[in-house]
Amino acid sequence: MESNPSSLRPEGATDLLPRLALCGNVFPGDTMGSVFSALDGPAQEFATRLRSQGWQQSLGFGLYFSDFAVSELARNPSKQKRLAKCLANSGFKPWTANAFPFGGFHSGPVKEAVFMPDWRDSRRPSFTCRVAETLAHLLMPGDRASVSSCPLGYGPDARRSPKSLEFLRRAQTGLLRLEERTGVRITLGLEPEPDGAFERVGDLAEWLQANLYPETPIDERRVGVCWDLCHSAVVGEAPEDALAALSKHGIPLSKVQISSAIYLEGGVSPEQVTRLKALCDDPWLHQVRGTLKDGRPFAYSDLPRLLDNPAVLEVIDQLRVHCHVPVHQSDFGDELYGTPWKESVQLALKAGCLDFELETYTLSALPSGYLAQDGMMGTMTTEMEACADALWPQDSSH
């Protein structure tokens, strides 16, 4: 399958150049206090550092709130004004938001709980619509934006449940009404993830067309797909297939999340096992896919389960781990590599996608060997420059 050039261009888009945001889930967002601390502190430092290096493009910011924080914000007009001021002070344009984690994303073990409550639970659409409402009121009539969410749930059950479809329809209707009131067009992007109800963009696109959109005109579709390149790499979905499926089924591509997974080839050495074990101390789920030396595929729901199975480690030929690693670097030592992403970005651009978001939310917990010499801040700015080089290769000032 081949995607139709420009077929994924956002409906109503008048701009010609792509835009790039930093995903705010790299910082805690469980309370508005933590959101303000991030915006006034490291986020502002990040923006200042980028501009000191000659950055001239618009600088997007992907808002991240927990359900508690966005509910707190909705009740407090003074905090709403403060949020707008914080973003303006740093020169951020908040054209996207991450509503996948419901809360507690940087505290304690998260694992599969990040999917909960899923789309069978009324709290999920309520949270999502509150985030969309917040985003709309930070923007101007005629702006377009996006909110990302979980791929219905963890495992297959949410995909089979009529409740999920009912609540997606509620979100679709709510976003259309929000646009009527504010003039801001917001697309909800469900984000396929390994072991989620949808692992692949193609499967989700087909399901949305068949179940949510059998008779909905394309220009009225407000629920689509957020394409996370790390997730696609882990499950082995070719970028051409993902984009072609979106085009074929008329599904909006809300944004591309630029991200890399870890992979290795040719067997697993003791040094690599030690390096992989060091990743297991963070709060998140690290799903595993790969191929054995006899050619058979294998999968584990979390990296520690694989590392506890030495017999399998001895016969691995290729391994892909869902752990977001810095995208500016491809070689992390001991023959551990980051999955490539630039080809996917180029194909998305050719297909008409304009919205891209850097999402390496793991930076605060990654072992130091994965970070730049000047730590998390230096890593973020170097990653952003790498993304800019892929999106605007002829613009040396970005």
If strands are numbered along the chain, what order do they take across the biggest sheet?
A: 1-2-3-4-5-6-7-13
Name the helicity range.
Answer: 25-40%
Overall mean confidence score, pLDDT: 95
Shape: globular
Any low-confidence stretches, pLDDT <50, length ≥5? 1-5
Architecture overview:
It is built from 14 helices and 13 strands. It has 398 residues and is an alpha/beta fold. The protein has a single domain, classed as TIM Barrel, CATH 3.20.20. It has an 8-stranded parallel barrel with strand order 1-2-3-4-5-6-7-13, surrounded by 6 helices. Helix 4 (123-137) runs parallel beside helix 6 and helix 7 (201-211) packs parallel to helix 9.
Topology, element by element:
Blueprint: E1 19-23, H1 32-52, E2 59-64, H2 67-74, H3 77-90, E3 92-98, H4 123-137, E4 144-149, H5 157-160, H6 162-182, E5 185-190, H7 201-211, E6 223-228, H8 229-235, H9 239-249, E7 253-258, E8 260-265, H10 270-277, E9 288-292, E10 297-300, H11 303-307, H12 310-313, E11 316-325, E12 337-338, H13 342-350, E13 355-358, H14 375-391
Parallel strand pairs: 1-2, 1-13, 2-3, 3-4, 4-5, 5-6, 6-7, 7-13
Antiparallel strand pairs: 8-11, 8-12, 9-10, 9-11
Search tags:
eight-stranded parallel β-barrel; 18% strand; TIM Barrel; five-stranded antiparallel sheet; 398 residues
